[in-house]
Amino acid sequence: MSFDLIKWAMNPFMLMFIAVLSGMLLGKLLKIGTSGALFTGLGIGWGVMKAANKVVEGGQGNIGAAERILKVSVVDKGFFSLFLILFVAAVGLLAADKIAVIIKKYGAKFILLGFLITFLGAGTTYLLTILSDSSNPYEVSGVYTGALTSSPGLAAALETARDHASQWAGEYDTLTEHDKNRILSIVSPGNHLSATEVKRLVPGQVDSLLVNAEAGVGVGHAIGYPFGVLIVILAMRLIPKLFKLDMEREYETFRREMAAAEEASGVTHIEPVSFDLIAFALACAGGYTFGMLKVNLGPLGYFSLGSTGGVLIISLILGYIGKIGFLNFRMDKKILGTIREVGLAFFLGIVGLRYGFAVIDSLTGSGLYLAFVSTAVGVVSMVIGFIVGKYVFKINWIMLSGAICGGMTSTPGLGVAIDAVGSDDPAAGYGATYPFALFGMVLFTIILHKLPM
Fold first, then answer.
1. I need a labelling partner for 383 at 20 to 30 A (CA). Which of 15, 74, 161, 323 fits?
2. 160-216 pLDDT per residue, tens
3. DSSP state, 324?
4. Which domain holds residue 69?
5. Which of 183, 43, 86, 96 lies closest to 411, judged by CA?
6. What total number of domains does the chain contain?
7. Residues with Cβ < 8 Å from 341, sequence gap 6 or more?
8. Residue 184 burial (CB < 10 Å; 0-12/13-18/19+)?
9. Which of residues 18, 40, 75 is at a domain's end?
10. Does 141 map to a domain?
11. Quick one: 40 and 177 in the same domain?
12. Residues 142 and 52 occupy one common structural domain
């Protein structure tokens, strides 16, 4: 009888199960709910990556298993997407019956919040970029998309980073010595090239600049993403306490506003079924397809909702319609709630596993400034977004918590908001804000690369 400890310890299924198991236990202990899976995932992910590197470098043990861990960043991204889709579809169907009423009542405010939060994030990012001469501007701009946990924003950042780097290379001869040195630090990191030595960029250096600009965005996003998730999770727990919100009063305000709005709109009741797997699968497949559609916005490039946005919007629409032929999209809330919790727990655990090494390594290395930028972007965007939403727009916390997460394009934050308020109602605020925040995210990402750095 034999047992391969390394193969067992580096099996992605075991790692996911252990991250969720330990995370849920931690969540019960610290009263942070499903969020515990993120924190245990971060620790496990860091430890597994360190162990895998040692196995490969030492050339002993199950090198194949270690190499697979390093290649996919612990857990394949496909698992990340699967559990995210399950979570989002369940959330959309749960919140769908009130979406029309909520959009009618708060719609314009949610649109403004979506653009405000993404603008604040971009402004904070730009300010911290120009304040740090030593930082790679492409890494810092990548942090913006990571801090707001936006994959479509990352795609826009990668495309515009290459265009910006090409323009910078073409203008090299006319730039200041300061800007030339910044370019050379990106062209050849660690070699300390000087503008007094390099009067003109040769083709090989231009190619290196383009490649390193894109790579810098990727590095910034990888470091910014987990910190963005952490900040949103903490904010959903701490904002009510810091601003001394009376939760009973917030609930009462929400119920009163919804009752009045529903009575005015004449919402029809549809009897739910226990669960309709065909309808649920259709919501997932239809939403995923819708998220892949790209709209040409001319000089702004192409815009798409991505899998998260597509599944959420289609689930809300189908859930609001309620029934199409033999398909029933109004399902038992307990069953959908279970799917939502399973999806969120595994999604958060996988986020931790995939980004654990980047998070902990950044806190002990050169990524410390990028971690600071991500934290600052998240805090500024959410705190000001909350103040405007609560005290200017007069939105109750139940709706506002979801809208802030939508403005941050943060699906993990939505899960925590739902957990914290004890209902799925924040999902409607999230769904109404998310598309506009996503558009703002892409727009401001492009603008960031057109500003002088």
1. 161
2. 777 778 887 888 888 888 778 878 878 877 667 777 777 888 888 888 888 888 878
3. E
4. 5-75
5. 86
6. 2
7. 34
8. buried
9. 75
10. yes
11. no
12. no
